Amino acid sequence: DRQTLVAVLQFLRRSNLRESEEILRREARLLGDDLGAAALSPAGAGLLGAPGGDADSTGGEALLSRVTAAAAIAIGGSAATVASSSPGVAAVAAVPPGKGGARARVAGSLGPRLTSRAVSRGRFASFFRLSYKLLPYANVFAVGGGVVVEDQPDVSAVLSAYNQQGDPTLYEEYYSGLKHFIECSLDCHRAELSQLFYPLFVHMYLELVYNQHESEAKSFFERFHGDQECYYQDDLRVLSSLTKKEHMKGNETMLDFRTSKFVLRISRDSYQLLKRHLQEKQNNQIWNIVQEHLYIDIFDGMPRSKQQIDAMVGSLAGEAKREANKAKVFFGLLKEPEFDVPLDDEDEEGENEEGKPKKKKPKKDSVGSKSKKQDPNAPPQNRIPLPELKDSDKLDKVMNMKEAARRVRLGPECLPSICFYTFLNAYQGLTAVDITDDSSMIVGGFADSTVRVWSVTPKKLRSVKTAADLSLIDKESDDVLERIMDEKTASELKILYGHSGPVYGTSFSPDRNYLLSCSEDGTVRLWSLQTFTCLVGYKGHNYPVWDTQFSPYGYYFVSGGHDRVARLWATDHYQPLRIFAGHLADVTCTRFHPNSNYIATGSADRTVRLWDVLNGNCVRIFTGHKGPIHSLAFSPNGRFLATGATDGRVLLWDIGHGLMVGELKGHTDTVYALRFSRDGEILASGSMDNTVRLWDAVKAFEDLETDDFTTATGHINLPENSQDLLLGTYMTKSTPVVHLHFTRRNLLLAAGAYSSQ
């Protein structure tokens, strides 16, 4: 009816809801001037609760009698819908309830004006879909040909009531009703719909607390918190401490939970079942939360099993939307520069035995030729600017290739030897370890704010001579690089002072000239390994910095901290180049992709994100861990990512398809270290449970199910048992493993501090 429409349009205009007004006007085919004319009529005034009109006046009656039985077909699949074509019989349409308690549309007597053509067009359908958010609920009963409306309020109150909360005493009833429905549904739907329990529980509890119904909130929490999955226990502990509205203001995690939508991935069949139930029961408090605070990612096809869902859920904001993992990722490796590999002394010695150099040369050529082919999945060579190779870098590459020629091929039949570096008497509290690529130095970050660097070869650590002594050196001599070093400073250990808090992350530059350290003091420091002094302090994080790492090409580095963002830096800029924001909790670990175009970050929000260095976009979100992430490792070919967390599980991800492809169970405590062997055949994991475990990476990644269906729906089928991938478990006496490193010849180095407990 036109006047009713005009009244609603005026309300929308007054409330500054222009977009809704436009949509409604388009649907009803009303022009702007119609709106002004109709507003002057007494019916219009009565509708809007203006002076001279009330709900019982012409306007109020008009609303009841003229909102015709189009309502009956307005809300697709709405609950109790009664209609009859004979005059004098009322039609009632009950609508999914919203914030102000249950809602309904009342249709007046069905007059001859309601033609089947108008109904079939469904012209009013959109109007009702829009307006049911505005009108509150009046208890409606169809009684033998008439309509009885209980407590029908004034229309102006009607339109403002949508921002009131539901009855706090009914929250428990709503939740237990839904719980009963889900537990009684078919097995195939039950697993999917059970995902609703946790986000609904949290939102309903927070809503009660926010509206200061403290006793109802406490009773609600005590009754239902035991039903939640075990991996949400830490969150529930935080939640239980929020008992007053004031507590919510300072709690960032809970504020995030309120503002970011919790993502659930549900099949269309399960979703329809849920929708029908909520509409039949008029359970509007829950329906409101579903619409406002949850993002339901609906897919077509079979519902997922409990095992498939359990593998993927557990993060602070639910699963990742499927859209989040659709972007193209260049996971291939960059082409290596070509240069000749000269013979060294060892090769020349080998010439005494005939045929030896001949065997070696083709090997080296093959190393060179491998890099000549361009990887089809690699990013363009100049996609991001990378530093040019210096002569010393080229020399190091040559050494690397020679070492690679003598590398041991690992596999199930040929496991690596493991050399364990134990930090004894580390009363300063060892908090971070790193080892140089050529395995010549090891660094420890400590809780007493020191950074300690050791040489692990017979060659001692020396500083450059003072400026006065350097001026005396013959700069043309061949061994000038040796002459500039001061023998008097030679020692096995150098201690670097500068931080004012525990050092949580350390990283050597690929050329071994620099060292990064990050600390609780909010800074990242760059140290020179020529002078063993601090060159720069990078200040950008306002809170503790948990991890930092150099790019495989040097120059760039990444840091992540308690402020929930990761930052990309260049050594010659004191401001960050990129800020990667999106995690809902601390960024606990960071890793560069081997091609340096991407950065992976692990967080206490239990997700792993992959960021594009070029534009700062998040291109992958991986969910599945049940605790904060503490270790990341890319496979040498750049295709896969391994992640470890406090839940003791190691998860394997296919970066190109954005899918979980493996789960390695065995550790009983936090996994702090992960590393692939140089050729990618073996994955080593180190944990707080004092063990190093070796896994068969080749077997884990072969025959992957990465068809379009799996990618689209996330129906991943992980093997029940990962024990057949476990190649070996190696225990320390009482040393948690905090770092792992494969040497260029595939010897595995591990490190940790002995703990006497």
From TrEMBL:
InterPro entries: LisH (IPR006594), TFIID_NTD2 (IPR007582), TFIID_NTD2_sf (IPR037264), WD40/YVTN_repeat-like_dom_sf (IPR015943), WD40_PAC1 (IPR020472), WD40_repeat_CS (IPR019775), WD40_repeat_dom_sf (IPR036322), WD40_rpt (IPR001680)
Ranges of compositional bias, category Basic and acidic residues: 364-375
GO molecular function: RNA polymerase II general transcription initiation factor activity
Domain called TFIID subunit TAF5 NTD2: residue spans: 166-294
Keywords: Nucleus, Repeat, Transcription, Transcription regulation, WD repeat
Entry keyword Nucleus: yes
Function: The TFIID basal transcription factor complex plays a major role in the initiation of RNA polymerase II (Pol II)-dependent transcription. TFIID recognizes and binds promoters with or without a TATA box via its subunit TBP, a TATA-box-binding protein, and promotes assembly of the pre-initiation complex (PIC). The TFIID complex consists of TBP and TBP-associated factors (TAFs), including TAF1, TAF2, TAF3, TAF4, TAF5, TAF6, TAF7, TAF8, TAF9, TAF10, TAF11, TAF12 and TAF13. The TFIID complex structure can be divided into 3 modules TFIID-A, TFIID-B, and TFIID-C.
Quaternary state and interactors: Homodimer. Component of the TFIID basal transcription factor complex, composed of TATA-box-binding protein TBP, and a number of TBP-associated factors (TAFs), including TAF1, TAF2, TAF3, TAF4, TAF5, TAF6, TAF7, TAF8, TAF9, TAF10, TAF11, TAF12 and TAF13. The TFIID complex structure can be divided into 3 modules TFIID-A, TFIID-B, and TFIID-C. TAF5 forms the TFIID-A module together with TAF3 and TBP, and in TFIID-B with TAF8. Component of the TFTC-HAT complex, at least composed of TAF5L, TAF6L, TADA3L, SUPT3H/SPT3, TAF2, TAF4, TAF5, GCN5L2/GCN5, TAF10 and TRRAP.
Name assigned to this protein: Transcription initiation factor TFIID subunit 5
Source species taxonomy: Eukaryota, Metazoa, Chordata, Craniata, Vertebrata
Gene name, Swiss-Prot/TrEMBL: Taf5
